[in-house]
Amino acid sequence: FVGHPLLDALRVTCDRQTFFDCQHLDPRKPLVALLPGSRVQEVRSLLPVMLEAVEEMRIQIPELQAVVATSDSVAEEVYATLMSPHPRVRMARNQTHDVIKYADVAAVASGTATLETACLGTPFVLGYRVSWLSYHLMRHMITIPYIGLVNIVAERRLVPELIQQEFEPRRLAAELLALLQDAGKREAVKMGLHQVAEKLGTPGAARRTAELAFRLMEQGANP
């Protein structure tokens, strides 16, 4: 095992104060990051639920701030249309890792972003929803107890998984509030995420792969 190449791709571009200043946010108030995926259909399916969950959370935490980390593969107009009923939620483009790093908690679509969030140490709730037919076809093929990469690596339910009908605003809000309002729970999750990140190895996977390839070629040339 040479390590996960994702570790070489993590790029936090600014410090915390600079991030909050650029996003016109208050660093003294809680922040939730929303990562609804990198495909149009994912964003259209998941982001409305995430946005409604933020509104639910604001019933208990009126000062809650939220930022959507957008993907270059989805047109900005798609986000703008979905976010128009939620003017207090901000949008950050090309700053995904900064958004994750400086958020207190996050709602994340199942996929690589969950590993990015784990490596950056932010407690999160995983969510996903597909068509009824796709879900039932996949359920018959999945033989492991979790679908989230982080939980698979951790070999336990480290972060909540809200799939299909469970992924709805009130349930998502409740899970995020539990992380925000329970410092002990939040720290326990952070510790678990750190352990997951350690299992992924250290940066430099591409270099180590190249070195291994050279050694194998040399052995082949000099049997």
Topology record:
Blueprint: H1 6-9, H2 16-22, E1 31-35, H3 40-60, E2 65-69, H4 76-83, E3 90-92, H5 96-102, E4 105-109, H6 112-119, E5 124-128, H7 132-141, H8 149-154, E6 161-163, H9 169-181, H10 183-199, H11 205-221
Parallel strand pairs: 1-2, 1-4, 2-3, 4-5, 5-6
Helix pairs in contact: 3-4, 3-9
Give the biggest beta sheet. 6 strands, parallel
Please, how many helices? 11
Shape: globular
Which stretches of 5+ consecutive residues score pLDDT under 50? none
Q: Alpha-carbon distance between the termini?
A: 24 Å
Record the strand order, biggest sheet: 3-2-1-4-5-6
* Helix-strand category: alpha/beta
> What is the chain-wise order of helices and strands?
HHEHEHEHEHEHHEHHH
* Helix-residue proportion: 40-55%
Approximately what portion of the residues adopt beta-strand conformation? Answer: 5-15%
Total number of strands: 6
Radius of gyration: 19 Å
Average pLDDT rating: 91
